[in-house]
Amino acid sequence: MSAGASTFVIRWINFFTMILAVAVVCFGVWMSIHRDECRKSLTLPVIGLGALILLVSLIGFLGAWKNVALLLWVYLVMLCLILVSIMVFTVVAFIITNSGSGHAAAGLRYKEYHLQDYSSWFLKQLNNTKNWKQLKSCLVKSEQCNNLPKRFKKLKEYKLAELSPIEAGCCRPPSECGYPAVNASYYDMSYHPVSTNKDCKLYKNAQAIKCYDCDSCRAGVAQYMKEEWRVVAIFNVILFVALSIKISPLIAVMVD
């Protein structure tokens, strides 16, 4: 590919990338306005990612448009740094999310999760008192547990439901406790637990308590985070490939 053609490709690739970056930033701003406190924690990374993509793409676009070697070199260095960062984060994400999975329970269509199955990084984050206090507050405000009776009006429907990891871990006691379910939000606590699991004593029917202090709830959050990290890691692989493609025409221009 000639230098002129490479410059043309760089210019238009970065033009469309800038449009994408503006969309990402706008989405981050929209999240900060319309999301609750739990989801607002994602707004800064989203806006930051969009801003970084916009900056790098703008430098590449101007460098290719004006044929300024300095800007193209800056663009190349920044692009390489981003690629290295993406690669490191992706490897770490796959390592952290490599452990932990659900356990089948008799009579249930969903799985239960055990905190000790997850990586030490997840354990450190979720056992941190300050971190868990914030997460717990978000879980209570999200009303996921309070919405269960609205979704499953009959006990049979509830028992056949496929609950999410957070619903399974935070909204109900572990099945090994042996508490009979009266409905989707109430368990008969008059029965003595058949298990020594400390979560059995921590669970309460009160909407603000439930099993939010249980290890099973932390495990449910860990599973949710694991799934989210895996999605991000897969997205990063795609992003890494896409950004790597941008380097080829740039190198053609620089060595010309």
Structural commentary:
The chain has about 260 residues and is mainly alpha-helical. It is about 65% helix and about 5% strand. The protein has helices spanning about 5-35, 35-40, 45-65, 70-95, 120-125, 130-140, 150, 155-160, 165-170, 200, 215-255; strands spanning about 105, 110, 180-185, 185. β3 and β4 form a beta hairpin. The chain is elongated and about 80 Å long. The N and C termini lie close together (about 10 Å). The model has no long low-confidence stretch (mean pLDDT about 85). It is found in: Membrane. Its main location: membrane. Keywords: Membrane, Transmembrane, Transmembrane helix. It holds the Pfam family Tetraspanin.
In brief, what are we looking at here?
The chain has helices at residues 3-34, 37-40, 43-66, 69-96, 120-127, 129-142, 148-151, 155-159, 165-170, 199-202, 215-255, and strands at 103-104, 111-112, 181-183, 186-187. It has 256 residues and is mainly α.
